[in-house]
Design a protein that fits this description.
Number of helices: 7
CATH topology: Rossmann fold
Structural class: alpha/beta
Number of strands: 4
Helix content: 55-70%
Largest sheet: 4 strands, parallel
Number of domains: 1
Radius of gyration: 14 Å
Order of helices and strands: EHHEHHEHHEH
Length: 138
């Protein structure tokens, strides 16, 4: 699993885009994260997972944002979250706690989903780097 948009087409076709990166992409402006997400979307490499969708829908305000999310959801592939992802997330949560890290459960699940599906991971949250490091030994 690669992080922060470093996934190259030759080594990894899909990249799971975390909520933090989608927010950058959907906001007005031209951040580096937004540019990377746009490249992934245009290259048909951006994917979602159910947890990211839940977070995005939970934060959606107004008809325009909800319409944009509906369009995204209908055009982008959504990775499934089978029981194996939940078990991996439980092991990762235990590893986090054992190393003194307190990480939101949603982010642990998103990283577990990316690892399970062997995708890249685009994000805009510093603790994802720590999570990815911990997954290497799972």
């Amino acid at each position: 699993m690669e992080v922060e948009g470093r996934c190259q087409v030759s080594t990894c076709r899909d990249t799971l885009v975390d909520t933090s990166a989608w927010i950058e992409y959907l906001r007005p402006g031209d951040s580096e994260v937004a540019k990377r997400v746009e490249t992934l979307v245009l290259g048909d490499q951006a994917v979602l997972c159910d947890m990211v969708l839940l977070e995005l829908w939970n934060g959606a305000r107004g008809a325009a944002e909800k319409k944009k999310l509906s369009e995204m959801q209908s055009h982008l592939r959504c990775l499934d979250t089978p029981h194996a992802v939940w078990k991996l997330a439980q092991r990762l949560a235990t590893r986090c706690r054992d190393t003194g890290l307190t990480i939101p459960s949603a982010d642990i699940l998103i990283v577990a989903c990316a690892k399970h599906h062997d995708t890249g991971l685009e994000h805009n949250d510093s603790h994802f780097e720590k999570l990815v490091t911990l997954t290497r030994s799972l």
